[in-house]
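SAMPLE LOG
Freezer: B-3
Tube label: C17
Construct: single chain, 64 aa
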Amino acid sequence: MDRDQLIQRLRARVQRGGPAEQVWWNGELLHVSQAIVRAAELNEQEPIRARGDDVVVPRMLRDG
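STRUCTURE (predicted):
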């Protein structure tokens, strides 16, 4: 998944509302608005894995 796809996916979660307004970002529970800001700060070519409520950015796991 690329950055723009992730942002679109997160925005769709905001529209759904309810418990869908939170996601796990590399193991940290965030409000979707915070996740959108983080996603916008990523490099366009950044590898991203997202499934369900989980977003994983492997480089951030390594860099801490």
